[in-house]
Design a protein that fits this description.
mainly beta, Immunoglobulin-like, 6-stranded mixed sheet
């Protein structure tokens, strides 16, 4: 157990008094006084203050002496007050004094506090065990809380076409607001400030506050004045049938432009270049593009496109005499439609329905004029051909199915059906040898005979000057002047009846003379003229 010097001194002083040695008493008292002085706490040093608008951070050096500080107290004073506004203990260096008023002057003191020394000396005789000794307060240090930055409203527009824009802002302190634009002189202002008239370009708005002579930080907002409307140029409409538009915007490079597009009286839609318009009905159409920049300036451009009705060759409605999709000539049109295609069905036409038209290949489809070919290489029956002998002037559209059956017998391109199927005029692969009903319709057209019904026979001869380069017996040539049909010749089976049964004449096929429309059977191995047609 340690014995403090002050207690030893008191004991010696007592002995000295009993023995009459006054000098020893004085020595003991002097030692006690020195002991107390040695144990006193020093005031904190190195005090530093860091003020914000509503608080101050206090830092200081720790008191380390013969008696170290166990804690500290910080007192807050008004700038001219003697009584503390607030005492904070225990307080640690780096702590904060909060809830201050922005722009106000305060003072701060710091005091060290230590544990009580033992009670052996006279200075401690009136202290109760466990109480504290304190150092002197430090000198009062003055500081000023800062002013907050003025808050500029988010409602202000970074780009505007208004040359005198308004700016909105706010501050927790009333009054004392100062505003200016660019390098202008600051003037007092309220929470709404309207600028002078500004030229197009980039500008900056500034605002700060002054309270009790203290100027706060400056808040700034950069903005752009722009009243130049977008200029839309080079507005073009691309070719159909699926139309598109393209354009350029030349007045505001680097500026965000939003576009809307409008066709005729339809509602405008958001768009960009290029813009897909799609198919257009026949007629005149107006296409308009509007561009708007972030400042609200807008520019507009319009153009007109005239869409012609599709021709027969491009998928439009056909009339007799039109050029067809296969670059042939339309010689037959049916408003109600007819079966067609490789299976003679009601779904083989355009769009999956009936066919409505027949076109005939030009006279030069296989050379300078129609070729002369045999009907087949085999004098035998052809499987898959329908008996149309009882309906010699009907069954329009049946020729395609007949031609396929003939080619499959087989018969190549040196035969009538083979050559017709091999033709690809207009990049179409559905040309074929017409049956007798289709030749009947073609004969009427070639000779200029008005159409009455499908069954009305061709019985007019136009003479030498026939349409489409068709040949007949009146033209000198080394072959018979008839055209092959894809219909075979049907005869009564001599071994049948009654009733009679029709069978193919294995050596005969139907032909038609274009010098009056007569129809008869021809010998399959004999040469005859050939002209390809197609249905659509």
């Amino acid at each position: 157990m340690k014995v403090r010097y002050s207690k030893v001194a008191a004991f010696l002083a007592m002995i000295a008094l009993l023995l009459g040695y006054s000098s020893l008493v004085n020595l003991a008292l002097a030692d006690d006084a020195n002991s107390y002085r040695a144990s006193k706490l020093a005031s904190p040093k190195g005090i530093s203050l860091n003020a914000t608008p509503i608080s101050v951070v206090v830092t200081f050096n720790a008191v380390l002496h013969q008696v170290s500080a166990s804690s500290y107290a910080v007192r807050l004073y008004a700038s001219s007050g003697e009584r503390p506004l607030r005492t904070i203990t225990p307080f640690t260096s780096g702590g904060s004094v909060a809830d201050l008023i922005p722009g106000k002057t305060y003072k701060i003191t710091v005091q060290a506090i230590g544990n009580a020394v033992n009670k052996s000396n006279s200075k401690e005789s009136n202290q109760v065990a466990g109480t504290y000794y304190s150092s002197e307060e430090s000198g009062k240090i003055s500081f000023v809380t800062g002013l907050p930055t003025v808050s500029i409203s988010a409602f202000n527009q970074p780009v505007t076409s208004n040359p005198t824009p308004r700016f909105y802002f706010g501050s927790p302190n009333q009054g004392g607001l100062w505003c200016y634009v660019d390098s202008d002189v600051a003037t007092t202002c309220t929470s709404v400030f309207q600028t002078r008239s500004l030229a197009d370009g980039i500008h900056a708005f500034h605002v700060y506050q002054i309270v009790s002579g203290v100027q706060g930080p400056t808040a700034s907002f950069t903005f752009t004045i722009d009243h130049l409307a977008p200029v839309i140029t080079n507005l073009l409409i691309g070719p159909g049938p699926s139309y598109s538009a393209s354009w350029t915007e030349t007045s505001s490079p680097g500026t965000a432009i939003t576009f809307t597009c409008k066709l005729d009286s339809n509602s405008a839609v958001s768009c960009s270049s290029p813009f897909a318009i799609g198919a257009l009905d026949a007629g005149s159409h107006t296409f308009t593009v509007t561009g708007e920049d972030v400042a609200g300036n807008s520019g507009q451009a319009s153009t007109t496109v005239v869409v012609s009705a599709p021709s027969c060759a491009t998928g439009g409605t056909c009339s007799v005499g039109n050029t067809g999709p296969g670059n042939g000539t339309v010689f037959y049109h049916s408003a109600t439609g007819f079966n067609c295609g490789p299976t003679f069905s009601a779904t083989a036409g355009l769009g999956g329905g009936l066919c409505h038209d027949l076109e005939v290949a030009p006279s030069t489809w296989a050379g300078l004029s129609d070729p002369t070919l045999i009907w087949s290489q085999s004098l035998s029956n052809v499987p898959g051909i329908i008996d149309d002998s009882l309906n010699i002037n009907t069954h329009v559209g049946l020729g395609f199915m007949n031609s396929i059956a003939i080619v499959l017998q087989p018969n190549g391109i040196t035969t009538a059906a083979g050559a017709a199927r091999n033709y690809d005029g207009g990049s179409k692969n559905d040309w074929y040898l017409p049956n007798i009903a289709e030749l009947n319709q073609l004969c009427k057209y070639v000779n200029g005979q008005p159409w009455v019904t499908d069954a009305s026979p061709c019985n007019v001869w136009a003479g030498q000057s026939q349409l489409l380069g068709f040949l007949d017996g009146a033209v000198p040539n080394p072959v018979t002047g008839y055209y092959w049909a894809s219909s075979v010749h049907w005869i009564v089976d001599p071994n049948s009846g009654p009733p009679d049964v029709m069978i193919q004449n294995d050596q005969g096929a139907m032909v038609m003379y274009f010098d009056g429309g007569s129809k008869t059977a021809g010998y399959k191995a004999q040469l005859g003229y050939v002209r390809a047609i197609r249905a659509f």
